[in-house]
Amino acid sequence: MKTIRMEEMSWPDVRAAMAAGYTTAVVAVGSTEQHGPHLPTMTDTRIGDATAHLVALKLGNALQARTIPVGCSEHHLAFGATVSLKRETLKLIVRDYVDSLVRDGFRRIIFLPSHGGNFGPLAEAIEDARKAHPGVAITGYTDLLGITGFLQGAAAEFGISAEACGAHAGDDETSLMLLLEPGLVVHERFAPGYLGPLGEKEVQTIFERGMPALTENGVLGDPRQASAEKGEVYLERLASFLVEQVG
Ligand SMILES: [Zn+2]
Q1: How far, in Å, from the CA of 132 to the mean position of ligand 1?
Q2: CATH (domain of 114)
Q3: What spacing in Å lies between the alpha carbon of 28 and ligand 1's midpoint?
Q4: How many helices (H) and strands (E) are present in the chain, helices listed first?
């Protein structure tokens, strides 16, 4: 098989793959939103797409469905350069993905959010989809603090603090983008953002009052130690972690 990305395949290719046992679909749920002064607005979508691709490869019997490029980003709107879906809109998109993929014959569908605002609505959408399609295994990784904590653990191995790793345009996301889209990362603008704790309370503040309540430049963390080499390790670790969690 030349590719497992469904958007690069024709319908006979997809049908042949499914007949050969590729009956799991993996879908990343990204965003189009500000990512500080140094990263492009596609960051979550690009990282989600690469992660979902590696997860699908590791699973071995999976195809990757087209990545959802926008998400729930209301808390970033104050910076501009952001397109945000309403909660209900994202849930309807997920529902339509599931209905289509189930009709296609997929037996297992895995959603992987790569943006904080998508975790809650996605968890609800997955629950609804399970009720609508009881014979299909519909799962996703929807623990926001779980994934933030995992990435901070990976950062610690590089000697990067949890605060510098951050959760938005910090060490991990910047390293991943240096690996995936080096031409779109602006080194001269690397600057630290919010470097305080990031627990349930801070996450709630962000969702209720918006990112400017914590950060002036739109960054949570510090990108200054980021590198493509680290990006490769983050990507590999993240994909393995997700396979463990939802595979
Ligand atoms: Zn991001």
Answers
A1: 31
A2: 3.40.50.10310
A3: 13
A4: 9, 4
Q: How far apart are the CA of 56 and the centre of ligand 1, in A?
A: 21
Q: Please check whether residue 178 is in contact with residue 158, taking contact to mean a CB–CB distance below 8 angstroms.
A: no
Look at residue 75 and tell me if it is in a domain: yes
Q: For residue 210, how far is its CA from the centre of ligand 1 (angstroms)?
A: 15
Q: What's residue 232's pLDDT? A: 98
Domain total of the chain: 1
pTM: 0.97
pLDDT given at position 247: 79
CB under 5 Å of ion ligand 1: residues: 43-44
Calculate how far, in angstroms, residue 145's C-alpha sits from the geometric centre of ligand 1: 14
Both tokens of residue 90? Answer: 């994202």
Structure tokens at 122: 């996605």
Q: Tell me the residue range of the domain where 162 lies.
A: 6-246
Q: Which helix (H) or strand (E) holds 230?
A: helix 228-246
Residue 1 in any domain: the answer is no
Measured distance CA(185)–CA(43) in Å, rounded: 10
